[in-house]
Amino acid sequence: NAGVTQTPKFQVLKTGQSMTLQCAQDMNHEYMSWYRQDPGMGLRLIHYSVGAGITDQGEVPNGYNVSRSTTEDFPLRLLSAAPSQTSVYFCASLSDRLHEAFFGQGTRLTVV
Amino acid sequence: LAKTTQPISMDSYEGQEVNITCSHNNIATNDYITWYQQFPSQGPRFIIQGYKTKVTNEVASLFIPADRKSSTLSLPRVSLSDTAVYYCLVGDIGNTGFQKLVFGTGTRLLVSP
């Protein structure tokens, strides 16, 4: 049982580059979300999705795009990376029955 | 949006009971209270959830008074491995009925020998 899988685990980008952070879950959860966590800080919600084809913005959506074509996958796209996007990114899926969120192991992103 | 307030940090010693209180004055009728634990370099992990009164599992207890404006996470006999950040969340029911999970800054618990 893999749970929530994020790839890559580490990534270094140059300013202006674009990339996609992958997130997949095998629990058939409808709700998925992306967070970023800066050093010593709490998690901030970037985008979330309540099902395939439905996404919405969280607290800090600027500079990021998402789409949800399947229940399993919820990729996060950085359109033009900036040093301010250096952070650890966590993907989560939520069991709507149990209201329990399951998190991936995170992607540590550095933008130089 | 129900906002939560927690202490920034707490210190304890091995074997002691630790109580972390969270204030949520604007909690809505349909909101649940959930606590997560996060170790360094890992994603948060669900600990316990409740709606009212007391909930207990193998890890912790959650005490919620009748007015639900606060809650207390109780960790019995902590060990060094309980050193982590603890987050209190209050469910934010979106238009679709799903909870939008919003984390605060959490409480950093340090357990010493």
Write the layout of secondary structure elements.
The complex is a heterodimer of chains A (112) and B (113).
Chain A: E1 4-7, E2 10-13, E3 19-25, E4 31-37, E5 43-51, E6 54-57, E7 64-66, E8 76-78, E9 87-95, E10 100-103, E11 107-111
Chain B: E1 9-13, E2 18-23, E3 33-38, E4 45-50, E5 53-56, E6 61-64, E7 70-75, E8 84-90, E9 107-112
Parallel strand pairs in B: 1-9
Antiparallel strand pairs in B: 2-7, 3-4, 3-8, 5-6, 6-7, 8-9
Q: How is this structure best described in words?
A:
- The complex is a heterodimer of chains A (112) and B (113).
- Chain A has no helices and eleven strands.
- Chain A has strands at 4-7, 10-13, 19-25, 31-37, 43-51, 54-57, 64-66, 76-78, 87-95, 100-103, 107-111.
- In chain A, the strands form two sheets. In chain A, strands 2, 4, 5, 6, 9, 10 and 11 form a seven-stranded mixed β-sheet that branches. A four-stranded antiparallel β-sheet of chain A has the order 1-3-8-7, with no helix packed on it.
- In chain A, a hairpin with a 4-residue loop joins strand 9 and strand 10.
- Chain A is globular, with a radius of gyration of 13 Å.
- Chain A starts with a strand and ends with a strand.
- The model of chain A has no long low-confidence stretch (mean pLDDT 93).
- Chain B has 113 residues and is mostly beta strands.
- Chain B has no helices and nine strands.
- In chain B, the strands form two sheets. Chain B has a five-stranded mixed β-sheet, with no helix packed on it. A four-stranded antiparallel β-sheet of chain B has the order 2-7-6-5, with no helix packed on it.
- The mean pLDDT of chain B is 90.
- Classes of the chains: A mainly beta (112), B mainly beta (113).
- The A-B interface holds A 4, 30-31, 33, 35, 41-45, 48, 50, 54, 56, 58-59, 90, 92, 94, 96, 98-106 and B 32, 34, 36, 41-46, 49, 85, 87, 91, 94, 96, 98-106.
